[in-house]
Specification:
One of its GO terms (cellular component) is mitochondrion. With 247 residues, the chain is of the alpha+beta class. Helix content is 34%, strand content 31%. The longest helix is centred in the first third of the chain and has 16 residues.
């Protein structure tokens, strides 16, 4: 109120217009737990893609001994020679402990890291939480393909676009469409970014579902209400690796 009054005084605006408290941005529903999910994306040298996947398949047990792997995928469309994986942590202190333990693990360093790093061209990570209305779910069967759709929303937070985003996602999570594995929002990485991880029986089924959505008035209306808050979006179609818990 003091700030508003001072500005108004300088502008010679009547005091009665200035006593209303300033509007504050809200982040919407707060996290009810500490559990978070780290999204990691690695870009692999094209000539080393097969070798990297083979090495990871053989040595991933050295990494999963320290924390929980949710899924590990090879990206087929939306980024060649790249892998995407999700790790679960109960707290930031747990993650720090895991990273410290790995740095002191001679097997992890000599058998995996020293061989894998030269195969990579870049690494990227984001810290995400499940949105309050979403729960991590397994697909109805093994096999199939996964799609990660990432949305960069306009600034303002879930208080502004949260309900519209939820309606757009849940409109697609219905019989005859894909299966929502989880919806996430960023804590670190690009802010106001949200993700929907989907499962489909096949890439062709995903194409059929997308065509169907374009003619479904219920889905079209929900998407139209959400897209006004959207700056950009991107999609990756991914195949689970043999060692991925989510298959």
């Amino acid at each position: 109120i003091t700030l508003c009054f001072s500005v108004c005084t300088l502008l010679s605006v009547h005091y009665s217009l200035c006593i209303t408290p300033c509007v504050r941005l809200s982040t919407g529903p707060q996290q009810e737990h500490q559990t978070f999910y780290e999204f990691r994306t690695y870009s692999i040298r094209p000539d080393q893609n097969a070798a990297f996947l083979k090495l990871t398949n053989e040595k991933i047990h050295l990494r999963t001994a320290h924390s929980e792997l949710i899924g590990y995928w090879s990206i087929e469309y939306g980024g060649l020679n790249r892998v995407f994986h999700i790790w679960k942590y109960d707290s930031f202190s747990q993650r720090a402990g895991v990273r410290a333990a790995l740095a002191q693990n001679p097997s992890w360093i000599s058998e995996y890291i020293s061989k894998a790093i030269p195969m990579l061209t870049s690494q990227d990570n984001e810290v995400t939480y499940l949105v309050p209305w979403s729960h991590l779910k397994r697909p109805p069967q093994e096999g199939g393909v996964y799609e990660l759709v990432s949305f960069l929303m306009r600034p303002g937070g879930p208080a502004v676009w949260g309900k519209a985003f939820q309606a757009a996602v849940t409109a697609h999570d219905a019989p005859g469409y894909g299966k929502l594995v989880g919806a996430f929002h960023n804590e670190f990485g690009p802010l106001n970014r949200v993700h929907a991880l989907w499962w489909f029986e096949s890439a062709d089924q995903r194409a059929e579902v997308r065509h169907k959505a374009h003619t479904d008035a219920r889905v079209v209306a929900a998407v139209r209400n959400s897209v006004v808050h959207l700056d950009s979006q991107e999609s990756k179609l991914m195949f689970p690796c043999p060692f991925s818990p989510l298959k």
